[in-house]
């Protein structure tokens, strides 16, 4: 069991409230996943720049002078924002690959990167994770969150969702994949590598790899129905929106709500209870083996 | 005069204890539950005559194990609504999520919207009327009772069916193993007319098709011995 929440705002004036709305949704899903929590938030972008979110278990040490060290290593300006165990480093997109290489060499864990996406995830109760990162105060156009009850890999930061396997792309998952080791090997042969032992990361890598090969988000999500075996309700985030797909058996719950202001996703209706205008919203259960997505 | 319980102020356990005590007291009281906010197990385990109206949507297992009580949800219901219901009436004004009415022994589950997958799975005597559509694997291993669907049915309707009767007015995407269409005879029209009237459904019994068990899975077929 795990909990998933997602929120896509249709109106720009609501952007400052995104974190607040998502935090309530996330905390409501605590009893579906009390061991870890995470959120991918799509916020501001700066032309030509990319944000790299990294994590360290020893942030004081690891993040001290990190921006300066990275600037020297990549010969390009770096700005850094530290939030608890995470740091977001903004660099020119031309030096992104080099910057990630340097950061990994320093033993930092890469949570994700992209023009607008930042990822924050940790072990602990969702309310504690949310307060450590100040999720409530974060703004943005859309975001997805996950509360984890681990089944397929250990309870660690790297095992928490969301998983990001390409710029501005991330995936959260309720369920378990049964052919993830086989798919991991297939992807590795194509040069697509994962960072953890987790099954969901393989799902994320599969989707990213399909998109890199030219598929649309819709086609990549369609592909999960054929190529991934197991139980899943997936919610995937991209720079422009988010998509939802459930396996054909569809035993993992999912509910969606739409108003003129937002599209919301959750594992259970109760995550919607505090959303403005929910009483007048169109609420429905996404069909099995059917891809849904919203893009701006 | 109805008694109001507000779940914004009252814990779920207190709400259910109050309702269960009212049911046991056989006092025929009317209760209104405000602010259910998708809570789990609202109004479950009621085993006497009490009327409950839930003002909003509920989560997992609403009105489970219902006996004699009347429960109305003025919203949608999460997975497993009216699971293992024994008697009484459960009405959902909106949609019902997966396995609505699972293993139900009796009573009427009236779903005004759609029901998703596995509606009436292993039903054992309950009557279920769905005014909209139902999802895949509905009435899987259904043993007894009637499932009436005014809209369409998803894949594998009535897979491994026993003696439950299935009536569908719209299209059936596919039938499950051992489920076949059967003749709609006068005695079935009588049952349907009664259920449609009880559910307040605007449909004519003659518009439905009946599906039931071909009964080919009841006995072991020696020709399949090699398969084991």
Automatic annotation (TrEMBL), chain A:
GO terms for molecular function: amidophosphoribosyltransferase activity. The keyword rRNA processing does not apply. It is an enzyme of class 2 (transferase). Its EC number is 2.4.2.14. PROSITE patterns: GATASE_TYPE_2. Transmembrane segments: none annotated. The keyword Transferase applies. This is Amidophosphoribosyltransferase. It comes from Shimia thalassica. The gene is purF_1.
From TrEMBL, chain B:
Gene3D superfamilies: Glutamate synthase, alpha subunit, C-terminal domain. InterPro entries: Glu_synth_asu_C_sf (IPR036485), Glu_synth_lsu_3 (IPR012061). GO terms for molecular function: oxidoreductase activity. Transmembrane segments: none annotated. Coiled coil: none annotated. This is Formylmethanofuran dehydrogenase subunit C. It comes from Shimia thalassica.
């Amino acid at each position: 069991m795990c909990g998933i929440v997602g929120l896509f705002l249709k109106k720009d004036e609501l952007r400052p409230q995104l974190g607040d709305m998502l935090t309530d949704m996330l905390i409501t899903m605590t009893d579906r996943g009390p061991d870890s929590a995470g959120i991918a938030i799509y916020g501001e972008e700066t032309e030509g720049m990319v944000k790299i979110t990294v994590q360290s278990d020893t942030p004081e040490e690891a993040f001290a002078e990190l921006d300066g060290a990275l600037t020297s290593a990549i010969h390009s300006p770096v700005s850094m924002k530290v939030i608890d165990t995470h740091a977001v480093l903004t660099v020119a997109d031309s030096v992104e690959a080099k910057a990630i290489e340097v950061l990994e060499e320093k033993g930092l864990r890469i949570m994700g990167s992209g023009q607008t996406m930042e990822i924050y995830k940790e072990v602990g109760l969702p309310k504690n994770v949310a307060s450590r990162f100040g999720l409530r105060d974060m703004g943005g156009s859309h975001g997805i969150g996950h509360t984890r009850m681990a089944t397929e890999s250990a309870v660690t930061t790297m095992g928490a969702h969301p998983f990001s396997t390409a710029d501005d792309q991330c995936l959260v998952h309720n369920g378990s994949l049964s052919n993830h080791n086989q798919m991991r090997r297939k992807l590795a042969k194509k040069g697509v590598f994962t960072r953890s032992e987790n099954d969901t990361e393989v799902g994320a890598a599969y989707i990213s790899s399909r998109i890199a090969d030219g598929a649309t988000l819709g086609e990549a999500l369609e592909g999960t129905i054929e190529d991934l075996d197991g139980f899943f309700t997936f919610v995937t985030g991209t720079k422009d929106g988010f998509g939802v797909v459930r396996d054909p058996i569809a035993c993992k719950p999912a509910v969606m709500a739409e108003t003129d202001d937002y599209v919301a996703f959750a594992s259970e209706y109760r995550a919607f209870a505090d959303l403005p205008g929910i009483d007048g919203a169109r609420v429905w259960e996404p069909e099995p083996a059917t891809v849904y997505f919203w893009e701006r | 005069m109805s008694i109001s319980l507000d779940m914004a102020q009252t814990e779920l356990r207190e709400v259910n204890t109050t309702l269960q005590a009212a049911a046991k007291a056989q006092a025929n009281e009317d209760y209104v539950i405000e602010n259910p906010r998708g809570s789990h197990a609202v109004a479950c385990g009621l085993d006497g005559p009490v009327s409950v109206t839930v003002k909003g949507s509920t989560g997992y297992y609403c009105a489970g194990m219902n006996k004699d009580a009347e429960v109305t949800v003025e919203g949608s219901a999460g997975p497993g609504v009216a699971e293992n219901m024994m008697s009484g009436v459960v009405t959902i004004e909106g949609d019902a999520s997966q396995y609505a009415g699972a293993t139900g022994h009796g009573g009427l589950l009236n779903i005004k919207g759609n029901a998703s997958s596995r509606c009436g799975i292993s039903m054992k005597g309950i009557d279920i009327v769905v005014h909209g559509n139902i999802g895949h694997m509905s009435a899987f291993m259904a043993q007894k009772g009637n499932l009436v669907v005014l809209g369409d049915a998803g894949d594998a309707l009535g897979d491994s069916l026993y003696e439950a009767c299935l009536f569908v007015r719209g299209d059936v995407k596919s039938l499950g193993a051992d489920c076949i269409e059967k003749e709609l005879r006068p005695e079935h029209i009588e049952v349907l007319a009664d259920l449609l009237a009880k559910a307040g459904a605007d449909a004519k019994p003659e518009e439905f098709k009946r599906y039931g068990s071909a009964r080919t899975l009841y006995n072991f077929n020696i020709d399949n011995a090699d398969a084991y």
